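Single Protein Entry

Contents — chain, fold
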Amino acid sequence: MDTPASADDRALVVSVRHATKRFGAVAALTDINLDVYRGEVVAILGPSGSGKSTLCRCINRLEHIDEGTIHIEGTEIPREGKDLALLRADLGMVFQSFNLFPHMTVLENVILGPVRVRKQTPAQATELALRLLAKTGIDGLADKYPANLSGGQQQRAAIARALAMGPRLMLFDEPTSALDPELVQGILDIMKALAADGMTMILVTHEVHFAREVADRIVFMVDGRIVEEGTPAQFFTQPKTERAARFLSQIMSYPVASFERHG
């Protein structure tokens, strides 16, 4: 995990080194090391309370790490101020709770960032927003307010809002967990299309079948630590640790016998 970026011919987008995060006496993250490369889709899996969402929030500096460093394309994330706001503008984040501004229409939600941060004209931002609303399947809802939308429609709007900033990295924190089951597939299809377009993505999810299909790499966390990582084929068919095998047996009816001790 500590191999220098020069050892890889791909562009390094995210570099997390020895990151630790505590909430009081509780260590939510302990000595996390993670690299994410341009165009890569990394899915973070693990049981509830394993630190998945905390890691995602730390990468976007919604939470401050207590130790270690996080770099985005070689720049360490500032702790606060204008520089942090500018860097965070390049990181699109989609939450499980949508976080749309309730007093704004869908269109107003989407154009806000491009106008205020990217300094686009309202006309330019509106043109971009309408394209993204069409891409996410809600172009007919531009004048609606969030309260008049279903959960799935709100999440589509949240994705369009994040994409409107032209992010270098998309962070998805359990984007389907608050949705009714029949609405989940539409959101996953949008994310699949983004992955196919080459968007760099970190995905915290409980949708393990989706992760297996879309991700380039699986990162498995337990108790605030990365226990193992590998390709979906490696992780889902030949987990390296007994803890990962046990996790798979609980959620996918995998036999624990699929675990093979390495080394």
In short: The chain is about 35% helix and 25% strand. Residues 1-7 have pLDDT under 50 and may be disordered. The CA atoms of residues 25 and 66 lie 12 Å apart. Strands lie at 12-23, 26-37, 41-45, 67-72, 75-76, 91-94, 169-173, 201-204, 217-222, 225-230.
